[in-house]
Design brief:
227 residues, alpha/beta, 16% strand, Rossmann fold, globular, 7 helices, seven-stranded mixed sheet, 2 domains
């Protein structure tokens, strides 16, 4: 076991996933997660940092006791979805994305452009996650992609947002906030990102008069715990 941990730490250092000086942390004793995470990086599917991946992993586990399904809006190549799928237990996972890049953006707020992150597809993500059960895919612009589904009747324990732009963040919060059960979590990438100012704007506006504080995380994530 100790030898395997040493090999994993060497891979993390060599792949520049984490600087060696930060190994003094119990996170690096979690061999199962680290081994799994390395495979995602080696597959070229990780679009966010190890710290952010670890937050998704722990929140997936820690919300097991909260009733409800799990959702991710902004799937891209499926790296973070695979983390959720691996550790979600028997919960259902709902994945929303255009699977062909960004929709129209508000250039007065957002820095991304229509078509960014085009290099993915629904078929490739389905194939990547094909070993997991209870995964549901919704292709199209959110929330239009909800049409004809039963998602309006669902409740959620954990929602992961990685949509980068104002309107998509706002629409996601408007849909999911009232459907997240008490104690459930909404996590978002890019709240602290200089390249995605629309995410912070949408969160700050939406939660201005809500009871939940926005908890800022390292590197760029934030979360709220539903009261």
């Amino acid at each position: 076991m100790k030898k395997k941990l040493e090999i994993i730490l060497i891979k993390l250092f060599q792949n520049r996933i984490i600087p060696k000086k930060f190994f003094n942390n119990t996170v690096f004793q979690d061999i199962n997660f680290l081994d799994f995470l390395i495979s995602i990086y080696e597959e070229g599917k990780a679009a966010i940092s190890m710290r952010e991946m670890h937050n998704i992993y722990k929140l997936t586990e820690q919300t097991h006791k909260i009733d409800g399904d799990i959702a991710e809006v902004g799937v891209y190549k499926g790296g973070s979805a695979k983390v959720i799928a691996e550790f979600k237990g028997d919960k259902k996972l709902h994945l929303f994305d255009t699977f062909e890049g960004m929709p129209e953006v508000d250039a007065s707020i957002d820095k991304h452009k229509k078509g960014d992150f085009w290099d993915t597809s629904l078929d490739s993500v389905k194939s990547y996650l094909s070993n997991y059960k209870e995964i549901y895919f919704y292709k199209g612009y959110f929330p239009a992609s909800l049409a004809g589904t039963n998602c309006h009747a669902l409740n959620f324990s954990f929602v992961n947002l990685d949509v980068d732009i104002y309107e998509s963040t706002k629409s996601s919060l408007e849909f999911f906030y009232g459907r997240v059960n008490r104690g459930g979590v909404i996590l978002s990438h890019d709240y602290r990102s200089i390249s995605c100012p629309g995410v912070k704007k949408a969160f700050d506006e939406f939660f201005l008069e809500k009871p939940e504080p926005i908890i800022e995380l390292w590197d760029s994530q934030c979360l709220i715990v539903k009261m």
